[in-house]
Write a structure and sequence with these properties.
Elements: E1 2-7, E2 10-13, E3 18-26, E4 32-39, E5 46-51, E6 58-60, E7 68-73, E8 78-83, E9 92-102, E10 113-116, E11 120-125
Length: 126
């Protein structure tokens, strides 16, 4: 089993920044791509960002490209999402997830992730 715990969410004004943290425990995540997804009220869960197992490649949703940065620190079993220039439309619950395939490429499909955290709320006020 893998346990993923997100933190760092909160209330921020538009234009502000937040850094989300994903702490992994249990079985390793170091050989797996990791991703961040988000779900706003009344909307489906959507891909935000992903990073390969070695950090060599990343992918971002068009809506966050240039504003968000995903990174990982395997020595600490941590994955991060730095969010800058936040907009009200970024308001959502943000989830960390582990991709199912070891040593796989980044993937934007939620069905290819096998472990999920409980989420952390991000609220951006206008």
């Amino acid at each position: 089993q893998v346990q993923l715990v997100e933190s760092g969410g909160g209330l921020v004004q538009a234009g502000g920044s937040l850094r989300l943290f994903c702490a992994a425990s249990g079985r390793t995540v170091s050989n797996h791509a990791m991703g961040w997804f988000r779900q706003a009220p009344g909307k489906e869960r959507e891909f935000v960002a992903a990073i390969t197992w070695n950090g060599g490649s990343t992918a971002y949703a068009d809506s966050v490209k240039g504003r968000f940065t995903i990174s990982r620190e395997d020595a600490k079993n941590m994955v991060y999402l730095q969010m800058n220039s936040l907009k009200p439309e970024d308001t959502a619950v943000y989830y960390c997830a582990r991709s199912g395939a070891p040593f796989g490429a980044v993937t934007t499909f939620s069905s290819e992730y096998d472990y999920w955290g409980q989420g952390t709320q991000v609220t951006v006020s206008s």
